Amino acid sequence: MRRMMPMWERAAWALTLSLLPLLVATPALARTEIQFWHAMGGQLGETVNELVKQFNDSQTQFEVKAVRKGSYPETLNAAIAAYRQKNPPHIVQVFDVGTQTMLLSGAILSVHDLMKQQEIAVAWGDFIKPVTGYYSKDGQLYSMPFNSSSPILYYNKDMFKKAGLDPEKPPATWKNVGAAAKKVLAAGAAKCGFTTSWPSWTMLENTFPWHDQPFATNENGYKGLDTKLLVNGEFGVKHIGQLAAWQKENVYSYGGRMGQPDPKFINGDCAMLIQSSAVIGNFSRTLKFAWGTGTLPHYGAPYKKLNTIVGGATLWVMKGQKAADYAGVARFMKFISEPHQQMWWHVTTGYVPITQTAIKNLEAGYHFKKQPDQWTALAQLSGKPTANSQGIRLGNFVQIREAIEAEMENIFAGKKTAKQGLDDAVAKGNDILKEFAAANKP
Amino acid sequence: MTRAVFKNRWLPYLLVAPQLAVTVAFFFWPAFESLRLSFFKTSPFGDRSYFVGLENFEKLLVSPEYYASIVNSFIFAFGVTGLGVGAGLFVAALATQKIRGLVAYRTAVLWPYGIAPPIAGIIFLFVFHPSYGVLPYWLSFVTAYEFNWLLKGWVAMALVIIATAWTHVGYNIAFFLAGLLAIPASVLEAASVDGAGPVRRFAFVIFPLLSPITFYLVVVNLIFSFFGSFGVIHAVTQGGPGNATEIMVFKVYKDGFVGLNLGASAAQSVILMAIVIGLTALQFRFVEKKVTYS
Lengths: 442, 294
Prior knowledge:
Chain A is 50% helix and 14% strand.
């Protein structure tokens, strides 16, 4: 005898069968997925996710999936490994020092060519010059600028007041930095005058262009692969020697590589910190004392004041995807470079807006009057760069930076003089450059 | 030693096959690839590859940083082994006493072994880092000495040796404990009756009986500290300050994955493998003679 289906079971079947069409219909609604690999963690990572969500909500054809792969070197390695397995992401965020590696890789599609292929008009001239200078080759932009920053001076206003210094006047010259530090130490307001995060990036890679000094031959590596470093010249020895002398008096206190020295400033051990403008957003939320910013210190005459170079990262487009996907990649790139997104990204993160239009809009809204600290980095990036300040393009730059920082540590520990340490750094760096040239013969 | 006898001809091979597959896939194949890569110069994305023969090895053998990393590795390995085996034996000897809460103490001393090396590194960072560590903060109230291992190389080396030995001492304690508990009480009693005090009992009865375990632990600790110590160094010092804690296995990582120079990195791993195989062979040849197996 067959069982009679009870009412609830009939209702359940009816519901299930009525939902079946959705399974069939879903493919038609499915968006093309664009893989975007990045290295932004913490609050920055959330902001990236928010930006991606804005793009996904603005259209229905594509869906960008943002995946954090770890630190900058880890993200680059993940992209390389994926590329070797013939399964690269569409977009990968690579830091400034990976530029030469990406340019010579044969694995990327330049943003310029991408936009031409997809027939999307982009106002290339609208990007600020230090940015196009760093990431262009033969006048064409290769990667899309995303998060650009520059090193600036942060200082503790409360400590300045205690030491009898004007809390609204950050020291702009190295002489004044030394004097301010000594006054702060004398007043017992701090244990050390200043410290620097990312030592090579702030004290060499940016200080040289800031003073119109060449960092390497071949116009900082732009003109060829047989490049040699020049940091052990007179200017380099003078500056690092000054830091080493100050280290002995606690005017300068070496705090480690990358962002490791930050706690010295945050905890009130040091009165000043030289760090990327990208931490403004974080500092605004976390610092418990009054603080301000100033431009990267300069020696003044006889050195010209040019511009600092952009740090941070850009977005690269990888080859090897389905042709139809590139339309979505191009739309995303165009989206993030539009003034509205640029302004939002800048205000939320502290990274500099990279188009003139965005900057003008922000100025019109008195943004920089309300947040003068946000203008500090931009003030260092305006103007037209020379061959010494358009950027630095070296192969295996990551290794070179490590070699330089290892020698800086030897110098600050008193194991070598500034000249010895810098000579050794240059010797090692030149070796690394030769290795790169040998493995990347065009 | 009894031998296992299998009725089925194929069963033993079948049972060993999975382990063999893992060993081939994760040890032999990568080792062979490293050997092959060490003869090439490769671009990071792999699109260009040039055969260069022994050039990668030649460059290493004239590089002062490479010799420095070899010296650092030996200092590190013998430091970790000495400290780990020595402390392991001492703690194990203490843990054989009949005291209350012995099980709790034994569990506590074995715990650090379960911590992943990078985590141990982070713990040590939070305790010892000059900028945000707890210990330098407390020390600053007591002394003016600046415990800044970011600038003093030997302090950094001591720190990573202690951190690595700390994670690995549980392993040594477990083995020594087993060895100590296996010594028949009658032997020790006989020694006491003959008038041997605790020190002589230890030196002439306990230590020789422990020698197979000690030999095994020394070999394993040395191999571990040449290869497995990467996690702590990466988390704590990243080879700094100024290459003071850059051991060979860390240099392999740095040159290969950060510097993207795969040829040099592969050459270094080949040399590292040869050194450790040589060291182990030497130990078996010369030290094993002194070991008394029962």
